[in-house]
Amino acid sequence: MVGDEDRESLSGFPSNRSNCAAAIYADPVGGGANVGLEIWDPNGWRKISHTVKWIDDWAGYQLITLPDLNLNGVSTVYLQPIYGNNGGPAKYIRLDDAIIQCVY
C-alpha cells in the first residue's frame, strides 16, 4: 500500500511539466541489491516511468534517476522505491533525498 508520505502534489510546479526528472539516493545494507524508482499517476494507477540500478553495499549512497519525465496533465505523483535481491537473504535499503524537479 502506498502511503501519503510517498505522494507529491505538482500544484506548485510550472504549468508546462514536459521536462521533469525524479531522483532518490539509495544505500543497500548487508549486500548489494537492485534498487529502483517508480513514478505513478494515482489517477488510474498508471506507471509513468521506472528504472532499476544495481548498487553494491560498499559503494555508499548512489543516485537513482528518472530523467525525461513528461508530467503534463498529472496533478499528483507517487514515488515508489523498490528493491530485489534475487531470492537471497533479506536486505535493508537506506533511502534519502527524494526529489522531483522540472525545467521550464
Characterise the protein shown here:
With about 100 residues, the protein is mostly beta strands. The protein is built from no helices and 7 strands. The chain has strands spanning about 5-10, 20-30, 35-40, 45-55, 60-70, 75-85, 90-100. The chain has a 4-stranded antiparallel β-sheet with strand order 1-6-3-4, with no helix packed on it. A 3-stranded antiparallel β-sheet has the order 5-2-7, with no helix packed on it. The model has no long low-confidence stretch (mean pLDDT about 85).
Structural class: mainly beta
Count of DSSP-assigned helices: 0
Return Rg in Å: 14 Å
Neighbour order of strands in the largest sheet: 1-6-3-4
- What share of residues is helical? under 10%
Give the CA-based shape.
elongated
Mean pLDDT equals 87
Q: Tell me about the largest β-sheet.
A: 4 strands, antiparallel
Helix-strand string:
EEEEEEE
- The fraction of residues in strands falls at over 45%
